[in-house]
């Protein structure tokens, strides 16, 4: 039986220093923080009904979030994955242009840097490079100029596929240790590998593929709470304009179904 999952819309470790050109930011306190804001999440999903979480679904439009407490950000990933360019070449349309997420990732990044918290995106997301976030290069937390990044597999938290994930964390306190194990999933996300049956596992339904195990959700909530009362002065840093930022495309859910996961 698979562990309970939810659908996304969509103690201190030794850290490896990562060289990057991003400037160091000034930390400023957030007084009397409110609930943790869960940004870009599915309506009535797993972040709903929790006393300490304020969920922002498509209707609320997380791009309008103005701050308060720390955040968990799940910006949509479809335009940042390996298949984005393939889909654009096949189908065309400005809405399919790689990176054209209507400014969702940029908004999520600004919110995390302003309020503290954690941003989650699939491993190998092109958004990290586009916005100058160093990719994780070593197991565990990697310290950057303004926060920490890491790669974690959601299979360690009960997902039936590997679902490798990158996290970007900002907070007063260094992030706590996660489960760094990488158990091989029994299933896969995305299209079948054309190189033969031996290269494939059973493919998960789309709904389960984009689901988050409840233990992982709870870990993200704990990380955001760990960043409580801390933020970054966003006024000192101009984020680059991601592709299509001015387009205003409606936010959408995380969808890993068009990217074949490493076996």
Task: Name the descriptors.
single chain, 263 residues, alpha/beta, eight-stranded mixed sheet, 5 helices, 12 strands, globular, disordered N terminus, disordered C terminus
Description of the structure:
By secondary structure, this protein is an alpha/beta fold. The protein has one domain. Helices cover 16% and strands 17% of the residues. The protein contains 5 helices and 12 strands. The protein has helices at residues 84-91, 104-115, 126-130, 206-209, 214-226; strands at residues 5-7, 16-17, 27-28, 36-39, 53-56, 71-73, 117-122, 142-143, 148-153, 164-170, 211-213, 231-232. The strands form 3 sheets. The chain has an 8-stranded mixed β-sheet, with helices on both faces. Strands 1-11 form a two-stranded antiparallel sheet. A hairpin with a 4-residue loop joins strand 8 and strand 9.
Order of helices and strands: EEEEEEHHEHEEEHEHE
Low-confidence stretches: 1-33, 230-263
Q: Give the count of helical stretches.
A: 5
What fraction of the residues are assigned to beta strands by DSSP?
15-25%
Class based on secondary structure composition and strand pairing: alpha/beta
The percent of residues in helical segments reads 10-25%
> Major β-sheet, in short?
8 strands, mixed
Separation of termini? 21 Å
Count all strands and give the number: 12
Specify the overall morphology. globular
Question: In angstroms, what is the radius of gyration?
Answer: 17 Å
